[in-house]
């Protein structure tokens, strides 16, 4: 049982906040000692760095709660160190931001992506070209079908118009013929009536003469 307990009892790792506060105290004390060696005040550093006095004082005292995000704290430490004449980028890199595990995972993922990237790109380009060719052929087929349908409709419409015009002409010609026939037949029907009237008149005259 004691062996299991020893195995379960693992050393507790300090949190990132604790590590940042410890490093800030260490770096701040170094910057404060350098400033005092150069006989510079915080107000003079404010003029050099354009950083507010309360932030410079918080860096020297290691007061993490009065400072902004860790990435900004690193930038402030870099400017502070540059103003004191030391390499600010190298000095500020000792302050942990808290992205080390994420960076390790991202590099591993980037390596895997770099390994599979060419194949995926080739497949993507092939699929893209295939889809574009199919869409273009589909559009061209639709355009040709529409043009053919229009030609067929125009061809079928022309005979119909010709038939309508011919059918419209035929009744008019028939009417003209009927009118002409009626005009020509009227004299033929009138001549017999005239002769009959004359004959009747002559008969009446003869009958009158005989009676006299």
From TrEMBL:
Residues of the signal peptide: none
Recorded superkingdom: Bacteria
UniProtKB keywords: Membrane, Transmembrane, Transmembrane helix
Compositionally biased residues, Polar residues: 151-181
Stretch list, region Disordered: 151-182
Spans through the membrane: 119-140
Name listed for the protein in its UniProt record: HTH cro/C1-type domain-containing protein
Gene Ontology molecular function: any one: DNA binding
InterPro entries noted in UniProt: Bact_Cytoskel_RodZ, Cro/C1-type_HTH, Lambda_DNA-bd_dom_sf
